[in-house]
Amino acid sequence: MTGRDLRALFSTNDRSVQADEAFTNRSSQWETAATALTEHLQHLSAPGFDPEDLEAPRNHVLVFHGVGGIGKTTLSRMLEAALTDAGRRPSQWGEPGWPADRILPVRIDLARSAGTDFEQIVLTIRAALTRIGRPLPAFDLALRRYWEANHPGEPLEEYLRRAGLGSRFGQALPQQMQSALADVAQALMLPGTIGSAVGALTGALIGALRERRQTVRALAGCERLADLLEAEPDLDALSFYPHLLAWELAQLPEGKRVVPVVLLDTFEDIGDRTRRDLERLIQRTVWLLPNAFWVITGRSRLQWADPALQGQLDYTGPAAWPGLAHTAAPATRTPARASVRQVLIGDFSPEDCDDYLARRLTRDGQPLICEPMRQVITARSHGLPLYLELSVARFLELSRSGRTPVPGDFDHDFPALVARTLSDLTPEERHVLRSVSLLDAFDLDLATRAAGMTQQAPALRLVERPFVRENPFSLWRYHLHDLIRSTIRGADDATDDRWSPQDWAQAAQRAFAALGEQWAQGTGPGRLLLVGCLRQGLAIARDFRLDLDWLADAAWAYISDSVWEPLAPPARQGTDGASLQTPSDALVETLSSLARRQHEHRQHTADRLTAVITARLLPADLHDMAVYYLAKAQRDLGHSDASRQGMQQVIDGGGRLGPAARRGLAHLARLAGDFPTALEVAETLGWEGRHHRVFAEVWWVQGDMVQAAAAYQLGRIEAEQHSVAGEAATAQAMRALALAFTDPDQADNELQLAEQLLAGVNIRASRINAQIAALVRDAGQSGDWEDRAALLRSEISIAGLASVETTLDLAVCFHHAVRGSHDELEVGIARLRRLTQSGNYAYYTDIAHFMADLPLPADHAPPQWLGSEQATRARWRGLVTARREHLRATQ
Questions:
Q1: What is the rounded end-to-end Cα distance, in angstroms, of the chain?
Q2: For the segment 721-746, what is each residue's pLDDT rounded down to a tens digit?
Q3: What is the CA radius of gyration of the chain?
Q4: 682-701 residue pLDDT tens
Q5: Which one, of 651, 631, 652, lies nearest residue 642 by Cα?
Q6: Which one, 98, 138, 423, 521, has the greatest CB density within 10 A?
Q7: CB-based burial of residue 211 (10 Å sphere; 0-12 exposed, 13-18 middle, 19+ buried)?
């Protein structure tokens, strides 16, 4: 559905450019409106409907609300067009379920620029009803009396012409009103000349109504007509006259009966939340005209169902407006179902954005905006139609300047978006909005503190705006529309109260401090709050070059549980250190590297941490953190000497990670096959050095799976006692691996527990160890075993986990040894030899020989076993023979 766009048409000399107002499908909103209107028509047809019932709940209002530029006005116009003429209804919208001649749409623009006042609203509705072709005497007489009292000497015809209602609806209204006056005068047997004197006619009619004369029996059924005619004919009285319209519409004969559909657009422009004078008059009109259907479009939800407005408006609360409440609930006197009648208009989908841009400007039927440009604009728009329209205007502006637009021209912020967003906010709400644009998400306390205010009232008002989205299940339940947020922060707007760089810096400091206080006070679930505060605090500290402050303690708390949730934002760019200029840059890069190492090759982690260490921007304890985790990455990559140096550096520094670094040296000793040294170090570690796991890792390579499994269990229990979820999951995954060699049935249960614990953390190596444990549990069986091993090998290669790869190959050798596949076992041993030629894990080739009871090569240098080589050989060989017996027993 398109119309001519005159602004675009007058933006270029190129007459071949077709500038059309493209309408993008809003079928869900049409379905909502059609369903609600159908329910309303059924309600009107029900035997119990009474237009004069002033107490029944109302469900004849449908509200579409959304951010400025989302397409509310376009939707309002399209609804009017679709209800007026079936030929103008988009084909996707489907056929309505009511006769077209029964619906009488009338759209009223409440925008300040339109200059619509309450008189004009009432007259527009009445003028639209002239299409019925007959006077509405009760209403017309009251309206004529009001007009002569408030517009003496001004013909109604002239007012209608000046307001544009004459051209829109014709001049039938004055004639119908005059006809109504003449009919009443005739019924009262008044002289014709008196019939034109409204005051005399009104007095005579009031007397006749009070005396219940038969001559006015046609009007006597309107119980409140006499009261309205006796009231002072001021603006307040005019707002009660729609009651007469409702009565008149109910008196129409079946063939003439219509249902007005009144579309009130730009509802946010009728006032604000402290001045509701016009809103009170409009709400009264809506309430008193229940046989009309009202479609209201505006930026904010309609608050009429809020009990707190009692006294500001006449009819308030969820019982009065069940469909407008946040949670619509059936009211006892509601004939129609109290369905939710407040609908947030969502953003365009990417497909709708592309369709809009492709049809907006064309030449010879082909899109003028090419696909790469449309992709950039769509991505930047976040689905906001106003952004699309501003981009079209920018395209024409660039073309007019003589150069061909390119996709890069549309990676652009539009200050107009800021102006549109701020236009109907109070100064306090603007201040809060700019403050919370620094935050990914916020609650009322965080918004108030970030704004530097002592009262939450402005934040309370702000979160009711449609550009503030709400998720009640989030840690912080509110967040800004993505495009609105990025534009407010990025665009150089020209508003009178725009912020200086110093204003932004002060707001950033307030928001940063508020996040730290929330974390320190524990205002939410511990780990969730920690990660949320870290994500937001890191971004603010980095962007505004703030001191680390509470981030240092939060970083230590983050690594302590070994959960490794993803942390945003990533570093600005690159890993060469050039982008690291402040301590906050370095901390962002460090923590991002630690979280990302679960998803990328360890060499990339090592490169990023090396850049942090080289920059030397972090305080000493956090610098040691980077050194320690670099040493861990180097160990995983097989760089034992470099890893050993890093671990020793951390130990010499005497910092918090000293016990962990001593554990790292124990691991390195185990990798080199120096098991007595590893065991000796383990005895000095305590809980901080995860001593039970270090013991277990020494025992299991000796083939002593029972002792290893028991130590892993102790490590898991101790980790649970200290609430360190990551360590508990790691210990349990390794316990499942140890027991998978000895007891496949018990390993099943242990693997289930490991999977439960791993589900709550993000530790790639431990997750892979659990998958290796599943392979060991199934070793010796046919089927897809080798395919599973091959897939796991690919994942390990992508992760760059050399140490885990050797464990997988040891499991492969165990599988072939159980099956007696000597050729495959030789291939596996050769592969292990290649993987361990650096010296790390070289004893795995010994274990592979032990499994098959094969002799070791003559030139082989054995590790330092805890016991004799024969005892270790016997234990590993015993695991193979036990598995064969198990398989025979289960076949």
A1: 71
A2: 988 888 999 999 999 999 999 999 99
A3: 39
A4: 888 888 889 999 999 999 99
A5: 631
A6: 138
A7: exposed
Q: Where are the beta strands (DSSP E) in 506-644?
A: none
Best CA proximity match to 670, nearest among 713, 701, 704 = 701
Query: What pTM did the predictor assign?
Result: 0.68
Structure tokens at 804: 């885990």
- Coil, helix or strand at residue 106: strand
Tokens of 449: 């503190």
pLDDT digits (tens, 9 = 90+) for 201-241: 777 677 666 656 655 666 777 788 888 888 899 999 999 99
Structure-token pair, residue 216: 């006015």
Q: Tokens 């070289």 — which residue?
A: 842
Q: How far apart are CA 390 and CA 414, in angstroms?
A: 7
Banded pLDDT at 23 (limits 50, 70, 90):
low
Angle in degrees, 0-180, between the axes of helices 137-150 and 172-187, rounded to the nearest 10: 110
Contact 548, 585 (CB under 8 A): no
pLDDT in tens, 88-116: 777 778 777 777 778 999 999 998 877 88
Q: Tokens 């009107």, residue?
A: 44
| Residue labelled with tokens 């409907």 | 49
Three-state DSSP class for 665? helix
Rounded to whole angstroms, how far apart are CA atoms 286 and 569?
Answer: 49
322-324-327-328 Cα dihedral, nearest 10 degrees? 30
Query: Which residues lie below 8 Å from residue 18, measured CB to CB, with a gap of 6+?
Result: 361, 362, 363
Contact 110, 269 (CB under 8 A): yes
Q: How many CB atoms lie within 10 A of CB 91?
A: 8
User: What's the token pair of residue 141?
Assistant: 């007489």
394: which 2 tokens?
């920018």
